[in-house]
Amino acid sequence: MNGGIGEASYANNSLVQEKVISMTKPIIEAAITELIMCSSSSMVRGAKSLCMAELGCSTGPNTLIVAMEFVKIVSRLCRKHGHDQLPEFQIQLNDLPGNDFNSIFKSFAPSFHAQLLQEVGSSALYCFISGVPGSFYGRLFAANSLHFVHSSYSLMWLSKVPERVEINKENIYIGSTSPASVITAYYEQFQRDFSTFLRCRSEEVMCGGKMVLTLLGRRSESASSKECCYIWELLALSLKEMVSQGLIEEEKLGSFNIPQYTPSLSEVKTEVEKEGSFTINRLQVSEIAWAACGGCGYNVAKCMRSVAEPLLVGHFGELVFVTAAFVARFLAVVALMAGLGDRAFVARPWWRG
Amino acid sequence: MNGGIGEASYANNSLVQEKVISMTKPIIEAAITELIMCSSSSMVRGAKSLCMAELGCSTGPNTLIVAMEFVKIVSRLCRKHGHDQLPEFQIQLNDLPGNDFNSIFKSFAPSFHAQLLQEVGSSALYCFISGVPGSFYGRLFAANSLHFVHSSYSLMWLSKVPERVEINKENIYIGSTSPASVITAYYEQFQRDFSTFLRCRSEEVMCGGKMVLTLLGRRSESASSKECCYIWELLALSLKEMVSQGLIEEEKLGSFNIPQYTPSLSEVKTEVEKEGSFTINRLQVSEIAWAACGGCGYNVAKCMRSVAEPLLVGHFGELVFVTAAFVARFLAVVALMAGLGDRAFVARPWWRG
């Protein structure tokens, strides 16, 4: 993600991610309500403090949206049931060490506290925010310490580019011309990563705790389906054009692949059942139109840029890629393509009890 | 503090703070040993995870020194007493929201983990680092969640410049020409702040927990004693020179005061007893020679600059103060004065059971 709060920053180009969170609010509310009201676990019912983790929190207006929901819903439930004393809240914000935690702490956390005071209206409300750097494909929190885990638009990122995908040639992700072995390598990396994620969380989430995960996925059972690969094909198109103009080397493009996998519903289900620690309460697929990104292809491209730029710069170098020329080319291609069809981002939320 | 890791950064100019931590290591070790071995609290003895907080952690090589000691001492004690299973460790790093947490997460935390693996030598060791932004003159952590609290060279910073010190004229701290009412205002601010600090920590530290605090103080009962005011008088001297040269306005200097108070032993003791939550196990005063800053006045001045520059820039503006001219002038004055006497920083560690 691009850090900071400038024009190309993720913070200023995360409208689609906001829409997705908004869409999953009823599910988040149901999970939190069940956590508080239906849990038979004394660890939850007698808790003086409730701890939630936002995994892949990024830096921007979305970072604390679900935390706000969490505090508001719990406070409402407590008041409704005559508990004057609200629990203390711990909000643990996780992302990779390169995430811009400074901006969260300096800009977004103070606004969060101000909004909380206004909306929940209790000066005796304690809500402690902390930043937890690290990969969620490893342990991040103490055992049995979390009541609620949320992650949105992060779990489709793999821990690394799969091995044995050098033969993927001009594709930068699974594409229509990708060999079968490349697709298998991507899928197996997803299986390993997702299973590791579940095992780590199963140690951290306490008995009775809940988890709501939303990730970019696909409706089709075919991993090379256009619905998830399209946007990367557009990016590849711009890169190929730069190769033909001699701006970047062909070999450099050949060795570039995106560490992402957008699973199908059944692939997610299979992995959860195989790992065995969690029970699925709800598993669904939803669509969000590209138009939700701000109404035009230009904004879709800006959104993609804010996400992909660090990957591109890391591989091809800053000099070539943060040029107005490349950005303009990619923006133009996406804008054109977005006008031709109504491609969509697919999100799938689910949770466990 | 100056952020980052550049030449003027706190990270590169915190040798004196390192010496102080080094000096207090036996006290830290005794406190941790008592925490683990002598505690009658089942919360500590049966704990699967141990949580320590470093308050005013700053950003630099000192940030994680005591955390390393904490993990090493506990691991050694566990092994010595035949506990194969080490507890999980939670290291909570606190400082103001403006602290450079990004550099901690990107540079110092990875080195910490690498060193830990080398020194404790267990791949099954879990040590979770998080950043907690906020003032320690307010609640920062969930109730009864901390086993061990450490803070070094931070608690002499007040929450704000005391009110009613406008009459302090050319002094920027308590100085030999400060009116009695200014000294009283500073002392009362220290009393309010320190008492608030103790009340907040008493809610967060669990029964049987330990706290080791080191702060800049003074031997003398007189708050205007040269031992603590001297360094600020040197800085004031440089500022006055700039006024005489018309580089800054006299009024601007008149309204600048440092939010610091260096208490005496009895002032600390009085406050702890008055607040009543903590028992003092040990309270002592130690000296560290200016020479420990790196051997010369130039290094003392660089150390002071890395601490004071943000305060100066905040008040006088960047244009005037981050000039080589000012820095050179201050460095020269301090170097000269340091050569004349053997002024010392006074540190006072203490802890409670």
TrEMBL record, chains A, B:
Xref: InterPro entries: MeTrfase_7, MeTrfase_capping, SAM-dependent_MTases_sf
Gene3D superfamilies assigned: Methyltransferase, alpha-helical capping domain, Vaccinia Virus protein VP39
Pfam families: Methyltransf_7
Alphabetic keyword roster: Magnesium, Membrane, Metal-binding, Methyltransferase, Transferase, Transmembrane, Transmembrane helix
Entry superkingdom: Eukaryota
GO biological process: methylation
GO-annotated molecular function: metal ion binding; methyltransferase activity
Bilayer-spanning residue ranges: 319-340
Family the entry assigns: Belongs to the methyltransferase superfamily. Type-7 methyltransferase family.
Name used for this protein in its record: Salicylate carboxymethyltransferase
